[in-house]
Amino acid sequence: MPKTSLDKSKIKFVLLEGIHASAVDALTAAGYTQVDLLPGALEGEELRARLADAHFVGIRSRTQLTAEVLAAAPKLVAIGAFCIGTNQIDLKAARERGIAVFNAPYSNTRSVAELVLAESILLLRGIPEKNAVAHRGGWLKSADGAFEARGKTLGIIGYGAIGTQLSVLAESLGMHVIFHDVVAKLPLGNARQARSMEALLAEADIVTLHVPELPSTQWMIGASEIAAMKRGAILINASRGTVVEIEPLAEAIKSGQLAGAAIDVFPKEPKSNKDEFVSPLRGLDNVILTPHIGGSTVEAQANIGVEVAAKLIRYSDNGTSTSSVNFPEVALPAHEGKHRLLHVHQNMPGVLSQINSILSDNHINISAQYLQTRDDVGYVVIDMDARSSDVALEKLAQVPGTLRTRVLF
Ligand SMILES: NC(=O)c1ccc[n+]([C@@H]2O[C@H](COP(=O)([O-])OP(=O)(O)OC[C@H]3O[C@@H](n4cnc5c(N)ncnc54)[C@H](O)[C@@H]3O)[C@@H](O)[C@H]2O)c1
Ligand SMILES: O=C(O)CC[C@@H](O)C(=O)O
């Protein structure tokens, strides 16, 4: 049974994938001295070895934290996804092990929206192709196939944080915005919800995807959806690589069904900057290919570092789990002068009453108690006198269904 009650100097953070130094600065300022910062993603044995004694791990989109990997990380208390997407983490497996997952849901929203808008303008003008031809010594001076953004229709699939931000920016350029979402959304400005995804595909001059990676979004744009788009339209994907089928997209660019595309995410992305990028889209001049950098701006990465580090620090120091993407959310006040016991358990009837009976049987007075559950996991936080916490930790770790216990001083 993982039991944690540690001095900050013994708590180990492993930050992978070149997370911004702002995260290290925040952790160090909060008193955490063991922070390993690694430039790339890890997998297999290397990843397991790194996580064997880690209490916190920080990743971006490349590191796959599967159930098997989590099983090899017995001390892991929480995971920081220093990005928006959390599809690379088995969230259920993490919760079932009592591991909370935090992300940065908004810090790179603006960066993605700006990139998509810039790509829309460049593609409408055929700039990627003209640029490529000029690099080869050619000169494509022509207005044919070059259009203003003003008055064009932008179709946004997934009207969440990024989709809505983009909607506002696009309208400021005089574009018409239509959107499709599985949830009813308040249209911003003059944007309008399309009757269906098919209706959006048939009407938009530019289709851009901003959905999460889910079973329902897998390959949602394939040959038939591309065929349903207007001839000469543009497709942009800065969401996840499993959303668009790449082969039919390449065919549609070659046949002229689509005038251009901008793709930032791919079904298979290189593991590091040293590996070759392989894609049927390579060599197609009017396709902008970017290496999953939609959210990679200095501003976004610095903000993400601060935001996610703050969530990990708060969870480590105080037990507050609000904004976790997989864990019961509890907002806790400070616990000055008290010891705080955190108990994560399987969500089944009777656990709380057993905890309280044990405390009562051992004459442990409760100063404050908080409980929240999420799906199959419950999270109880109990503040008590310092002299009681050793006994309480010992006894509560034995309650059937206990997943993890921690005490904070
Ligand atoms: N390229 C990058 O660097 C980069 C950066 C940030 C985010 N992303 C990706 O973009 C995604 C979207 O980010 P966000 O912050 O806007 O997320 P969000 O959760 O705020 O919005 C996603 C929207 O998609 C909708 N949706 C879900 N399934 C759908 C479906 N089948 N059809 C239509 N709509 C559907 C949701 O209802 C929601 O409104 C993230 O999940 C992430 O994978 C990529
Ligand atoms: O920084 C990354 O690796 C991922 C960025 C983006 O896809 C996200 O989900 O925020």
Put the structure in a nutshell.
Helices cover 31% and strands 20% of the residues. The protein is an alpha/beta fold and 409 residues long.
Structure description:
Helices cover 31% and strands 20% of the residues. With 409 residues, it is of the alpha/beta class. The protein folds into three domains: 1-103 and 298-327, 3-Layer(aba) Sandwich (Rossmann fold); 109-289, Rossmann fold (3-Layer(aba) Sandwich); 329-408, ACT domain (Alpha-Beta Plaits). The strands form three sheets. Strands 9-8-7-10-11-12-13 form a seven-stranded parallel sheet, with helices on both faces. The protein has a five-stranded mixed sheet with strand order 1-17-14-16-15, with helices on both faces. Strands 3-2-4-5-6 form a five-stranded parallel sheet. The longest helix has 21 residues, at 298-318. It is elongated, with a radius of gyration of 25 Å. 43% of the residues are buried. The model has no long low-confidence stretch (mean pLDDT 96). Bound molecules: nicotinamide-adenine-dinucleotide (NAD) and (2R)-2-hydroxypentanedioic acid. Residues 84-85, 108-109, 112, 157-163, 180-183, 210-214, 216-217, 238-240, 264-265, 292, 294-295 line the site of nicotinamide-adenine-dinucleotide. Keywords: NAD, Oxidoreductase. This is D-3-phosphoglycerate dehydrogenase. Belongs to the D-isomer specific 2-hydroxyacid dehydrogenase family.
